[in-house]
Amino acid sequence: MKASMMFKLAIVAGVCLSLTRLGPGQVKQNPTADLLTELIRVNTSNPPGNNRELAELLVKKFRALGVEVQIIPTPEVGKVHVVARIKGDGSKEPVLLAAHGDVVGVERDKWTVDPFAGRVKDGYIYGRGAMDFKGGIAVFAEAIMVLVKNHVPLHRYVIFLYEADEESGPYGTSWLAESHWNLMNCEFALNEGGWIIKNAKGDVQYVSISTGDKVSIPLILTANGTSTHSSMPRPDSAIFILSRAMARRADYEPPVELTPSTREFFEALAKTSEPPLSKYFEDLVSSKDPKVIQEASREISKDVLLHAIMRNTFAPVFLKAGFRGNVIPGSAEATLNLRVIPGTDLPKFIAEIREVIDDPRVDVSLPSGDNPDAARVKELVREAENLKSSSTNTDLYRALEASAHSTWPGRPVTPYLFQAGTDAIAWRSRGVPVYGIYPYPITAEDLTRMHGNDERVSIESLQQGTEMIYKTLVHVASQ
Ligand SMILES: [Zn+2]
């Protein structure tokens, strides 16, 4: 065996030495888990989204290892981006790992633990951001720091980007890309997105890597009626008209649309699910009989996540009507949040919604006018129509696939259309492939806690995820 190969094996083994040296009962010493606990303890709820204190914590850790770090201030004092660059010999283009430091707020009274204490309970770390996405920061940063500590020789720079304003706010990666593209340009990037799903027995069922995100667009429904004294009600109340329109919308199910990645994802589910679900997945991707497909779609759609990824969706998010207790208002307005598959013909989709509502007194339109919101929506519509999913034919996708197979042997790895949106668009819209993963095995139950209450991630999952990401980096940047 060549010495260089021995060295490479030693590098891969290095992660095992440093990450899996702990037995049961010693989990608190897991470095990724320790880092996550520290991250959760700094409250970065957005709004307001101040992430500077957390940025400084990370900067200190990278600088202690001699890594070159740059803080990029935004026009808002409390918000920054951080770029840490691990040097390579430059023979290949950089690989970038992106992770946002802001988190959504909490409904404090619905949590059973302090969401900002990083409490460890029954092998889990609890706290806002445990999964989305401080867990990701901890895994990415720890894997990179092990790479530095192991002095792994690199062909390409490994860039770690800590981001502001992903959950909301104007200074996220799109802003950064406009002003500092040179800092985030790369051959390909890794971001949040797909899932490593555990079944009820606690075994990893599949690893999904997102190659595209759905696009979120607001659609306004405005019902018009006669405005008059509420003592003399008329049949053309704007509120009644809007309510009927909303009820018709609630009964309508948009048709199934399988992108190539969703098809591949369902094929993986067909192989790894128990009957009768496995048969429904099989039928959905391979049957030619519309009745069989319809039944499969109905059964699979009982899972809200699967329901969402196999079609365009629209959900009501705001209702606005009325201003006085004794006046029937002349108009009533609802906002639907559309989540559309990239490549969707949006005018056609909106025409379908109009047809479902089937009432000329209800105007169905995208926000318009000469204002920033309307301009942003125009941009989103362009993105929805033109964005392409990232190709799986790249060194980074192959590295993710190989390291997932080595960490969870025999489990399928599949591309995935992410049902929500991420800031991957800053790269994808510039033609740079981005792959998404929440780098820790989770159950479907864990998933409901994301943006919800008692968010948590298991320490064992953090350890496995760090191992997988470390191997990915060795694979893509060193071999
Ligand atoms: Zn997130």
Explain this structure to me?
With 479 residues, the chain is α+β, with helices and mostly antiparallel strands. The protein has helices at 3-19, 31-40, 52-64, 134-149, 173-184, 238-250, 260-272, 277-286, 290-300, 304-309, 346-357, 372-386, 395-407, 425-428, 444-448, 459-477, and strands spanning 68-73, 80-86, 95-100, 120-121, 124-126, 158-163, 188-198, 204-213, 215-224, 228-229, 313-321, 327-328, 331-340, 362-365, 413-418, 434-443, 456-458. The strands form four sheets. Strands 1, 2, 3, 6, 7, 8, 15 and 16 form an eight-stranded mixed β-sheet that branches. Strands 11-13-9-14 form a four-stranded antiparallel β-sheet. A hairpin with a 2-residue loop joins β4 and β5 (124-126). The longest helix has 19 residues, at 459-477. The chain is globular. Bound molecules: zinc ion (ZN). Zinc ion (ZN) binds at residues 100, 132-133, 166, 192.
